[in-house]
Amino acid sequence: MSTARSSSNARRPTSRSSTWTNPNPNPDPNPSPNPNHDPDPNQVKDLDNYYKALDRALMKFHSSKMESINKSIKELWNRTYKGPDIDGIEIHSEHEGETYP
Q1: Residues 51-69: what's their mean pLDDT?
Q2: What is the mean pLDDT of the chain?
Q3: How far is CA 76 from CA 9, 66, 85, in A?
Q4: What Cα–Cα distance (Å) separates residue 87 from each residue in 36, 55, 72, 74, 90?
Q5: How far apart are CA 86 and CA 70, in angstroms?
Q6: pTM of full prediction above 0.85
Q7: DSSP string spanning the chain?
Q8: What CA–CA distance (Å, rounded) separates 93 from 59?
Q9: Does residue 100 contact residue 92 with C-beta atoms inside 8 Å?
Q10: Could you tell me the end-to-end alpha-carbon distance of the chain, in angstroms, rounded to an integer?
Q11: What is the per-residue pLDDT across 21-40, written as a single tens digit (0 to 9) for each?
């Protein structure tokens, strides 16, 4: 079994070691060019456009998936259920600001 040994050239802490103090103990990792941290209007506009585009894309994706699921449910329902009282079942989802009758 081998044991790791420290070299004699390694620095060892001493009781007289000096301590460095950071003049700014909590530096901002992302310094803003504006010291008041007011958002840049162009950045706000870009983020708003991104948010809207992402929202539209997610809604489009969700709608297409719901159509696919409802198509599968309809096919399975018509193959499985033969009663006269229920024609079919569907899944509906309400989006913010939207309601179904």
Answers
A1: 94
A2: 77
A3: 78, 15, 17
A4: 63, 34, 15, 9, 10
A5: 15
A6: no
A7: -------TTS----TT------SSSS--SS--SSTT-PPPHHHHHHHHHHHHHHHHHHHHHHHHHHHHHHHHHHHHHHHH---SS--------PPTT----
A8: 11
A9: yes
A10: 78
A11: 666 666 666 666 656 677 88
Structure tokens at 92: 């509906």
Tokens of 45: 């506009």
Tokens of 31: 């310094």
Between the alpha carbon of residue 82 and those of residues 45, 72, 86, 90, 91, the distances in Å are 55, 17, 9, 17, 20
